User: Fold these one by one.
Assistant:
Number 1:
Amino acid sequence: MPRITVEQAIFADPLSTTLLLTGADALNLWPGGAETRKDLSGVATAAGVDRRLEVLPPRRAAAAFVTAFVVRGGAHDDTRGEMRLAYAPQGTLATLTLDGVEPGLADAARGFLANLAEHSERRSVAA
């Protein structure tokens, strides 16, 4: 299956950035994300214009934090993926990999990482 991978440098530490992925903030950062909710299993969802995003709670890996994603809707039933937030010399390297290449998905993924970087960096400066 084809995959897309997008990366973004974030000038904030991975732990702070990971905290943004633990609830509605992550969903609001997805382009078109709105109407967020979190069910009892801890899976958060957001209904966008033509897609719905589910973000599973982050887990700690050896040198990164990892979060599973599911994008529902669009041209395919489900597009699964993974976000890795790894330590980098000046903060965090965010890598989002999604299985599938439906139209607009790569742009949405890039927009999500740009929004995540902006929000994370703004919070880092405020602290």
Number 2:
Amino acid sequence: MIRVPGAAIVTLLAVLAGFFGYRGFMGLRPTGPTRLVTEADLTSFVSASQDSSISEFVVVVLGATWCNGANDERLGRAVRKIESFRARSSRQNLTLTGIAVDRDAREGIGWLNRLGHFDELLAGGHWLNTGIVHFVWDDGLTRPALPQLAVIKRDIHLVDGRLRVAQQILVESAVGVVAIGALAERLPSLLAASERDQRGESSIEPVSH
């Protein structure tokens, strides 16, 4: 008979619980109510447009606690400038996203909270952070460089009860606190020009790296 140390059994149970989820592994059902997203929910999400579609701008800030430039006060001023612009313009189609390329998610979240008030935060995972995988490695919209500010435009459509991102392009990006500050200063005119492009007055071409 093979004897398995008690510590090994405890470790195995912990791994299984983490993999399947504690309640699922123990055969317990969730105690709270569950709710599926309905088409009515999604319709209200894009209700501003009669053709069930919206265009959204995502301003992405990339940095890390271990990056000297990301801890420069000028980066914080640039983020606050963007926040101030959005508050004055009451824009509903502008999302401010913060990505911390830290191994420790808590440290990254702390840095992002000190930097500004974001709509969404992604931290941890180092260079395999979900946001980095999406914006840098998969789509190639941004560069693997810190600190960085990227302005991304995406068209979203409601089709058969599902939201679909039809197009996602990089409008402009900047690396380094000086360039980021300049881009933050030009953001209002940049978004206005992009919206004119959408109306067919000209075309936007993805920025090449």
